[in-house]
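Subject: for your reference before the review

Hello V.,

The reviewers asked for a structural picture of the protein, and I figured it would be easier to keep everything in one thread rather than splitting it across files. Below is the amino acid sequence we used in the manuscript, unchanged from the supplementary table.
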Amino acid sequence: VTGGQVTGSGTTTITVNPTVDLAATSAGDTGLLAAGTGYYVNVTPGAFQDNLGNAYAGIVDPTTLNFTSADPGAPQLLSTTPADDATGIPTDTNLVFTFDETVYSAAGDITIHRSDNGTVVEAIPATSGQVTGSGTTTMTVNRGPYGLVDEGTGYYVNIPAGTFADQAGNPYAGIVDPTSLNFTTADTDAPQLVST
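And here is what came back from the structure prediction:
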């Protein structure tokens, strides 16, 4: 209690400023406390005393001073690659989803549909080896060298609710329409003369 993290000696209020290391739950975690997590505080008997030298009895159990940190709610999608309405996208482009907090693969398939008729051309299970980044803020769908999308064609991506979830189990709301995340692939073939 004599370190720089404890202030207020000689007053009626003691403030403890924990280090970031207190709750670093994953790489890039900058919060002092993990969201939606229970904590308790213990104070060693005699750690504090009044002006007459009377020792504080302390707190030595998990129930006298406990709390649960706030849960910020469901993860929010901040950005995607390709971006919504992007054009000229190479057919082998991986899908990248960046969230506002750490997310984990849960259940469901990320699907790629043709924009003209809604046909599913690829369905990638969120828990498959093709989806990487679980436990970070960035999830990548590695489509591999055999993507089923065609050049010069419009596509949209759907992610069912609950495909990704945060550490507290809050599900990502998902994308379930043809306009929130759509793109057009590049047409790299030069036109060919078919008759003269």
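For the response letter, the relevant points are probably these. Residues 23-29 have pLDDT under 50 and may be disordered. The two ends are 90 Å apart (CA to CA).

Happy to draft the paragraph if you're swamped.

O.
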